[in-house]
Design goal:
The complex is a heterodimer of chains A (about 110) and B (about 575). With about 110 residues, chain A is mainly alpha-helical. Chain A has 4 helices and no strands. Chain B has helices at about 5, 25, 30-60, 70-105, 115-135, 150-155, 160-185, 200-230, 245-280, 285-300, 315-345, 350-375, 375-385, 385-415, 425-450, 465-495, 560; strands at about 525, 540. The chains are: A mainly alpha (about 110), B mainly alpha (about 575).
């Protein structure tokens, strides 16, 4: 039915996209790289758990969030292939991160002023 | 697979594809049929929630027990809120009319992901079934109010988990619809339809879709955390376990305040469609209205804290959120002034959709201005958790989105069904609805200012007169609504056939037959001008016949050649 009706219209756009997609993913990532990233994630998790047992006062939250941010960046960059994606995808991810950061700052600044 | 020519020889209502009968609807990926399936479901839930609302008003007719017990009243107002907000107000205009009109208005044959669109409808239905199911299992329906505030929602013995699960699933439906619309608007605009040639309804949907994609996951995670709190006692929100209940309120309102704009932005988009049509002139301040939609969406993200002024939030945050709240009034004001300016010196044709729009501007202005009372710290403390707040959000949500949903039904009814309704009865019903609405909800402002708390089952004798007046208002309102739907239903069955363009509209949906064929257009049209130009055509409906090459999408079309 109507999915068929889309074909004629998006052919040109799809073709252009496929081309970009193909170029963007023309890369080889070694198992070694993935393994090293995974090791990094495990190490950071260990740091998170360790720090949770140390009294850092108001720094606790910031430290935990910083480590979580680094882990998120590693996953996004390597496992989700952001490193190899074209610029528009990176811009969209950046916009999402800015929005998330805004939520976070407004929420947790309340906690620090309470 | 449909034969293109054959598919466009009959309307989408008559088309017989691979599946016949009811399966031809339930398995259809046609955006118009999916829109109508949403309409059916949404109207059922609207009537259920409206009935619950009428029962609440009946209970409040006299002090003490009138028709139900206090615990029943708690569940009734919770269900009224959950069903109205999650099953009617949020999806109504985007899911029904966004689905139906968006592809046609941008000159496309369907949305970008038709199967995902159908999947979104099924998710919506699963969420709805879970919400209904929660009425009959466990210890009874949730009694927390639609906000599910902790710590009560963690400790309530009622069926909170299933209700939050329903909202969780509905959230996914909303996200997928938003994603579909964003991609559709970016990728499937007809050649020549630049961003500032898009109809303003599309702009409203675009702003809404971004909020759906970016804010809805927050409520999903928050509701999931409530379930984890209830089952595993993880202690994120529960103060007894070191959690922070105010964090819950932050997370809840990070979504639920932008959700107010999910509700209202598409409605505002329809206002911007109806006004130029019935004013017979281009809309005043097209770009300002378009950009103000994005402005509302953007600032609307940052004002959630005004729901929490008396929750124990820090003074600094209260001041920041109060300031930000006042900023939302600016893009909203831009829209209102531009709409009124559109009417100035126009050749106005008074018709039911326009009456609804005028009612909307009047009611929404009251809702918006009383919002400033709630956005200001000092006055908010006086009226927090009173009927004043209930009045305010009914003026914004029902008076804004609800009234515009009725306007939208009347405006696009001829296009969707290919039939006309009785105009005179439509105007009478509109008048009854607007009178009933104000008789029902305006006393809430007065009672709230006098100190009547919201969600209370009982009240002091001094409020009785206002409650009686309000309950009578509910009867007037419901009569108007029943009258209105009766008229539309009669029009559907017995109404005269609608012309292609009964209102003299200028956007693309008025260039295709009523009701539209399955594939909307024989050829993808070429757009050569703005959407509300009345004195010259701005679309080439059969570019192939005129030798215009449309390959390459909107960015590569040679505008001069098209002209």
């Amino acid at each position: 039915m109507s999915e068929h009706t889309q074909t004629g219209e998006i052919t040109a756009a799809q073709a252009a996209h496929s081309e970009e997609h193909g170029q963007a993913h023309a890369h080889q990532v070694s198992y070694g790289t993935y393994f090293m990233v995974w090791l990094g994630l495990v190490a950071l998790t260990a740091v998170t758990v360790t720090i949770a047992g140390i009294q850092l006062g108001s720094l606790t939250l910031i430290t935990a969030m910083l480590i979580a941010s680094v882990k998120t960046a590693l996953v996004g960059y390597h496992f989700m292939h952001l490193k190899y994606d074209n610029i528009i995808i990176k811009v969209f991810v950046l916009v999402c991160l800015v929005i998330f950061l805004t939520f976070w700052v407004l929420t947790f600044s309340d906690l620090s002023f309470r | 697979m449909a034969n293109g020519t054959l598919a466009n020889e009959v309307s989408y209502l008559e088309y017989q594809g691979k599946h016949k009968g009811i399966m031809g609807w339930l398995l259809s990926v046609d955006h118009k049929r999916i829109g109508l399936m949403y309409l059916m479901a949404i109207l059922i839930f609207f009537f259920v929630a409206m009935t619950l609302g009428v029962l609440m008003r009946l209970e409040m007719l006299t002090p003490g027990e009138t028709i139900m017990k206090p615990s029943t009243y708690n569940s009734v107002f919770t269900l009224h809120g959950v069903i109205m907000v999650f099953l009617f107000i949020i999806p109504a205009i985007p899911a029904v009319f966004g689905n139906f009109m968006l592809p046609i208005q941008i000159g496309a044959k369907d949305v970008a992901f038709p199967r995902l669109n159908l999947f979104s409808w099924y998710l919506y239905m699963v969420g709805a079934v879970l919400a209904v199911f929660s009425l009959f299992v466990g210890e009874g329906p949730a009694d927390t109010g639609w906000t599910f505030y902790v710590p009560y929602s963690i400790r309530s013995a009622q069926n909170v988990t299933l209700t939050t699960m329903a909202a969780f699933v509905l959230g996914f439906s909303s996200i997928l619809t938003g994603l579909n619309f964003v991609v559709t608007i970016h990728r499937l605009r007809a050649p020549g339809m630049t961003w500032f040639r898009m109809p303003l309804f599309v702009w409203g949907l675009y702003a809404t879709s971004w909020i759906q994609v970016l804010a809805t996951p927050v409520i999903g995670i928050t509701l999931a955390l409530i379930m984890l709190e209830r089952f595993m006692g993880i202690g994120v929100f529960d103060p007894a376990l070191g959690g922070d209940p105010i964090l819950y309120q932050h997370l809840f309102w990070i979504y639920s305040h932008p959700a107010v704009y999910i509700m209202i932005l598409p409605a505002m988009g329809v206002v911007s469609e109806i006004l130029p049509t019935f004013s017979r002139k281009d809309i005043f301040g097209y770009k300002q209205i378009a950009i103000s939609s994005l402005g509302i969406a953007l600032i609307g993200y940052l004002v959630w804290g005004h729901h929490m002024f008396v929750s124990g939030m820090s003074d600094t945050s209260r001041i920041v959120f109060s300031l930000l709240t006042f900023l939302v009034a600016i893009p909203t004001g831009v829209k209102i002034f531009n709409w009124v300016a559109t009417l100035y010196k126009a050749s106005i044709k008074f018709s039911a959709p326009l009456y609804y729009v005028l009612g909307f501007i009047f009611i929404f202005s009251i809702g918006g201005l009383t919002g400033l009372v709630l956005g200001a710290l000092a006055t908010d403390i006086h009226v927090t958790d009173t009927y004043f707040v209930v009045a305010h959000f009914h003026y914004v949500m029902f008076g804004g989105m609800g009234i515009m949903f009725f306007a939208t039904m009347h405006y696009w009814f001829p296009k969707v069904f290919g039939k006309m309704y009785n105009e005179k009865i439509a105007v009478i019903a509109c008048t009854i609805i607007i009178i009933g609405f104000n008789v029902l909800y305006f006393p809430f402002f007065i009672m709230g200012y006098m100190g009547m708390p919201r969600r209370y089952y009982d009240y002091l004798p001094q409020f009785e007169g206002w409650h009686i007046l309000s309950t009578v208002g509910s009867w007037i309102l419901v009569s108007g609504i029943v009258f209105m739907f009766g008229n539309l239903f009669y029009g559907l069955l017995k109404g005269p056939k609608a012309a292609v363009n009964p209102w003299g509209g200028t956007t693309l949906e008025w260039k295709v037959p009523s009701p539209p064929p399955l594939e909307n257009f024989d050829e993808i049209p070429v757009v050569t001008g703005g959407p509300y130009v009345h004195d010259k055509p701005t679309y080439i409906m059969h570019p192939g016949k005129e030798g215009i090459n449309t390959n390459g999408g909107p960015k590569t079309i040679n505008q001069e050649a098209a002209l």
